[in-house]
Amino acid sequence: MTSSQQQIDVSYSVSNEFFELWLDTNMHYTCGSWLRGDETLEEAQENKIGILADYAEVTPDSLVLDIGCGWGSALEYLVRDRGVKEAHGITLSTAQLDWVHARELPGVHAWLQDYATYEPERKYDALVSIEMIDHLCSPRQARDGKAVEIYRAYFDKLASWVEPGGMFGFQAILSDRMPRRRKDIEDLAFTADVIFPGGRNPRLEELVMAVRPSWEILELRMQREDYGRTTAEWLRRMRQHEDHIRATWGDALFDDYERYLDTCVRGFAAQWIGDVQMKLRRC
Ligand SMILES: C[S@@+](CC[C@H](N)C(=O)[O-])C[C@H]1O[C@@H](n2cnc3c(N)ncnc32)[C@H](O)[C@@H]1O
């Protein structure tokens, strides 16, 4: 069971113009990677997709799939910066798909497609998937002890799309410590229920179990503090457009996104949540 189409639309189809106001110019809606420390958000996002493309050992001749491709930021990087001739993407958001198509990127093909029912015609050489797994298991399913089974179904399915030895650059938001204060617990629950309904961040140990037996972890990189920086920058940029957002989409949208982004900033600082990148090789 994954987030439903309706739940995905709550998270990503508010309005492309709204997200454009505060994400980086290429519309990455995931954690950037600060390697030197003084990068802009735009540069950190390029670092992130650069790391994952390296993990996936992408070459210009690779047929690459981005599972949960968002607004097409990684696809654009692959064809523009890595010279990839053919890159595919799947998303569950209609608004995102429209945006990918509007980019008119040569060699890019994207579809509105649930990964669980996707049956590619050809094997891929390389896979990337950036913070999409966070939509696959609901809090209730995790309470029922189903998390590892659900994440393993995802890793097994993706493994069937590449040959043994095929590489995968993977990134996920993680759950770590539980906050103790009631307000913090309520803010985290609000983020899960209102902004990302149907989703839940996996625990690192669940992912380490679930990649087996299909994939071997070759490298693992933690970047919790980078997500604090990413969400702080999103919040800063969004606040610069407060009047416009309130006037265009209403007070509730601004207030909800301010509460969610502020919770993320505090959550990454306090280690309630984290972020991981993995280099995976198909067994
Ligand atoms: C947090 S966004 C990340 C988007 C993009 N990877 C990025 O870095 O900006 C999660 C993405 O996963 C997609 N997604 C969620 N569940 C999916 C599913 N079952 N099949 C395909 N895509 C899915 C959403 O539509 C969205 O594009």
Summarize the structure.
With 283 residues, this protein is an alpha/beta fold. 47% of the residues lie in helices and 19% in strands.
Description:
This protein has 12 helices and 7 strands. It has one domain (5-282): Rossmann fold, CATH 3.40.50.150. The chain is of the alpha/beta class and 283 residues long. Strand 1, helix 4 (73-81) and strand 2 form a beta-alpha-beta unit. The protein is globular, with a radius of gyration of 18 Å. The mean pLDDT is 96. The chain has a 7-stranded mixed β-sheet. Helix 7 (147-159) crosses helix 9 (204-210), helix 10 runs antiparallel to helix 12 and helix 11 (242-249) crosses helix 12 (251-269). It has helices at 5-12, 16-22, 41-55, 73-81, 94-103, 139-143, 147-159, 182-195, 204-210, 224-240, 242-249, 251-269; strands at 63-67, 86-91, 108-112, 124-130, 162-175, 215-222, 273-282. The structure holds S-adenosylmethionine (SAM). Residues 2-3, 8, 12, 28-30, 68-70, 73, 90-93, 96, 114-116, 130-132, 135 line the site of S-adenosylmethionine.
CATH third-level topology? Rossmann fold
Please give the domain count.
1
The assigned CATH architecture is 3-Layer(aba) Sandwich
Uncertain parts: none
Structural class: alpha/beta
Arithmetic mean of pLDDT: 96
Number of strands: 7
| General form | globular
**What is the radius of gyration computed over CA atoms, rounded to a whole number of angstroms?**
18 Å
Q: Tell me, what is the CATH class? A: Alpha Beta
Counting DSSP H or I runs of 4 or more residues, the number of helices is 12
Classified in CATH, the superfamily is Vaccinia Virus protein VP39
Which ligands are bound? S-adenosylmethionine
Largest beta-sheet details: 7 strands, mixed
Strand content: 15-25%
Cα end-to-end separation: 25 Å
Helix content: 40-55%
Instruction: State the strand order across the main sheet.
Output: 3-2-1-4-5-7-6
| SSE string | HHHEHEHEEHHEHHEHHHE
